Amino acid sequence: HICDGAALERMSHTEVQQLVTRVSVFARVDPKHKIRIVQALQKNNEVVAMTGDGVNDAPAIKAADIGVAVGSGTVVAKETADMVLLDDSFTTIVSAVKEGRTMYQNIKKVVLYLLAGSFAEVAMITGSIVAGFPVAALPAQILWGNLVEDAFPAMALAFDKGDKENMNDMPRKKEASIIDSQMRTIIIAKSICENIVLFSIFVYLYNTTGDIALTRTIVFVAFSVDSLFFVFGIRSMRHMLWRAPLFNNKHLVASVLFGWVMLLLAVYWQPLQRLLHTVPLAAEHWVVLVSFGLFNLLLVELIKGIFLLKQKRTGTMRTI
User: Fold this and answer.
1) CA distance 105 to 99
2) Around Cβ 98, how many Cβ atoms within 10 Å?
3) How large is the angle between the packed helices 91-130 and 212-233, nearest 10 degrees?
4) What pTM did the predictor assign?
5) What are the phi and psi torsion angles at 67 (to 5°)?
6) Higher confidence at residue 245 or residue 291?
7) Is residue 153 pLDDT above 90, yes or no?
């Protein structure tokens, strides 16, 4: 359908709001008409992008959610716009949207990675104190986990390439929270299950050995091992772990390898043992700890699988 500026002039705001849902081309429109079209689309809860190059496009560029000016356009249009196409190519907009979706997806991964680990640590330490046991982990051990084991994988997530299907998704709503229902489920379920298992190990070891240094070392290593496994589970919320490329992010692989090396040094190198108050672990301890990390990874995959099955049934797609 096509509508011209003269017909648009005779319509009320309500009529224009209804018109923009079925008209694909507006011809011979004035600057004030462009603003009305932008505002009508926004009232329909649409995210509006406006492209232009002239002075008469500037008001609509300013009113849109994102204004785009071409590099060869007027100074007014470029100064008003949020984005300027230096190569005057509209395909650049598509590339920018793709990059923006990847960046947003990576931000959500980092938030999920850090929050899931932090909630588990807080719950574990608080639980040990409330239950009348010695604190489950020392401040130095917590700082080591956050700064050495978690920080580099979190930064490496920012370099993920993103899912190829990102551009198939519908635009997300303006009011959509960065922490969606799937992320909340993973954070809550992982924190609860992880703490039940780890607190049980903590109580058993402390009651049977009475060695608080060994018990704290187990807790410290457990949190670190969990982070080094968990990061691979959240690289893609659209694909299960075995269907996603695991090693195409060299920064993440390097950060995880670095984390393992530093963790082993923290447990077996005497200077770090004195700093972190750790003790050497036996082979059977590592079997339990690696199993603990795999358990948390499988839990995340289970939650992902449930959400993916639900999305398949409803036909919905997500941006993470």
Assistant:
1) 10
2) 14
3) 160
4) 0.82
5) -100, 135
6) 291
7) yes
Structural contact between residues 206 and 133, judged by C-beta atoms closer than 8 angstroms:
yes
Residue 152's pLDDT is what?
92
Element (H, E) at 84: strand 83-85
What are the structure tokens assigned to 7, written together? 């017909």
Alpha carbons 133 and 127: distance in angstroms, whole number: 9
d(CA 309, CA 286): 34
Per-chain mean pLDDT for the chain: 88
Q: Predicted confidence band at 319 (pLDDT cuts at 50, 70, 90)?
A: very low
Q: Which of 54-68, 105-119, 158-172 has the lowest mean pLDDT?
A: 158-172
- φ/ψ bin of 170: left (φ > 0), alpha (ψ from -120 to 50), beta (otherwise): beta
Distance in angstroms (rounded) separating the CA atoms of residues 242 and 175: 33
24 φ/ψ angles, rounded to the nearest 5 degrees: -105, -15
Q: What's the CA gap between 78 and 281, in Å, rounded?
A: 62
Q: What is the DSSP string of 263-293?
A: HHHHHH-HHHHHHHT-----HHHHHHHHHHH
Q: What is the DSSP letter of 152?
A: H
Q: Which of 176 and 125 is assigned the larger pLDDT?
A: 125
**For the segment 211-226, what is each residue's pLDDT rounded down to a tens digit?**
999 999 999 999 999 9
How far lies 278's CA from each of 144, 209, 284, 292, in Å?
12, 15, 17, 19
Q: Write the DSSP string, 17-83.
A: HHHTTT--EEES--HHHHHHHHHHHHHTT---EEEE-SGGGHHHHHHSSEEEEETTS-HHHHHH-SE
Mean pLDDT across 37-66 = 90
